[in-house]
Design a protein that fits this description.
Number of helices: 11
Number of strands: 8
CATH class of the largest domain: Alpha Beta
Distance between the termini: 29 Å
Bound molecules: flavin mononucleotide
Shape: globular
CATH architecture of the largest domain: 3-Layer(aba) Sandwich
Radius of gyration: 18 Å
Structural class: alpha+beta
Order of helices and strands: HHEHEHEHEHHHHHEEHEE
CATH topology of the largest domain: NADH Oxidase
Helix content: 40-55%
Strand order of the largest sheet: 1-2-4-3
């Protein structure tokens, strides 16, 4: 996988990992992850923390077989009652997920398959902050074998391992003619967002392209049944879109615009 070092490569091979090797994350990797989190926290206005060797957080999910050997966590802590911070959490934590993917680590966003209270006890949560969500992190089960797989094998698995809404559903607000006339960067952005994780795979975000302004917009589809985590999933989808589209920046918020550079 040596030649595949870009974030778009991570998007092409990332999948939710629910079974891990029992091995702890090695010290060097843990240190690098913690440093990445510190840097991203400064940009994001968040307080994400790496918690290693905390299997009590996943005792039930591991015992039921839903997860295997889950023991490490990125705890996503941020300002309480702040909708924009929740969107930023999705955007920036997914950025860390993609960096971890390139290092051969597996990840799983968790809203339900963890003991939130046990996780909160291990975190530093300042006054005015709350614990939003977690991301399990660790070496995927049989990871030596996993590392020997080719990029193409991993990408094929990503493309086929779960259902996805179609490009047309992701651009439900556009006509066929508008889709055909949209620039390549828009299509590439949407295709990267189609590979994004979302709570219960609800894929609650749609995109539109405005030819007059040459901008894209991202919208929460309130019929998708993802009301609890829609802001987080909006942030995740925007990050994937931005990486797929190449250069450009988003404005935060439902309906926020993307300016391609
Ligand atoms: C906010 C959020 C919460 C999630 N919570 C859980 C969870 O509690 N348990 C679980 O097994 N998967 C959870 N997932 C993982 C999704 O089920 C998964 O991302 C989705 O099915 C798409 O699959 P993929 O990540 O392999 O592309 C969550 C994902 C997100 C984004």
């Amino acid at each position: 996988m040596a030649e595949h070092t870009q974030l778009i490569d991570a998007i092409d091979i990332r999948t939710a990992v629910r079974a891990y090797d029992a091995e702890p994350i090695d010290d060097d990797t843990a240190r690098q992850l913690a440093m990445t989190l510190d840097a991203v926290n400064t940009l994001a206005g968040l307080h994400m923390q790496l918690l290693c060797d905390k299997p009590d957080v996943f005792a039930e999910a591991n015992a039921s077989g839903h997860l295997k050997h889950a023991a490490n966590l990125i705890a996503i802590v941020g300002p309480a009652n702040d909708t924009e911070a929740k969107e930023r959490a999705g955007f920036y934590a997914e950025r860390v997920v993609l960096a971890a993917t390139l290092r051969g680590l597996g990840t799983l966003w968790v809203a339900g398959s963890w003991d939130r209270e046990a996780a909160a006890k291990h975190c530093r949560i300042a006054r005015g902050e709350e614990l939003y969500l977690g991301v399990v992190i660790g070496y995927p089960e049989h990871h030596a074998e996993h590392l020997s797989k080719s990029f193409e094998e991993l990408a094929e698995y990503q493309r086929t391992h779960r259902p996805t809404k179609s490009f047309e559903q992701f651009t439900a607000g556009m006509s066929d003619a508008a889709r055909a006339a949209a620039p390549d960067w828009f299509r590439a952005g949407v295709e990267a967002a189609m590979k994004a994780p979302s709570a219960m795979n609800r894929q609650p975000i749609t995109f539109t392209y405005n030819p007059n302004a040459d901008t894209a917009a991202a919208h929460i589809d309130t019929t998708a049944g993802d009301e609890h985590w829609a802001l987080n999933d909006l942030g995740i989808a925007k990050l994937h879109f931005q990486i797929g589209a190449g250069q450009g920046d988003w404005a935060w918020g439902d309906g926020g615009l993307f300016l391609h550079k």
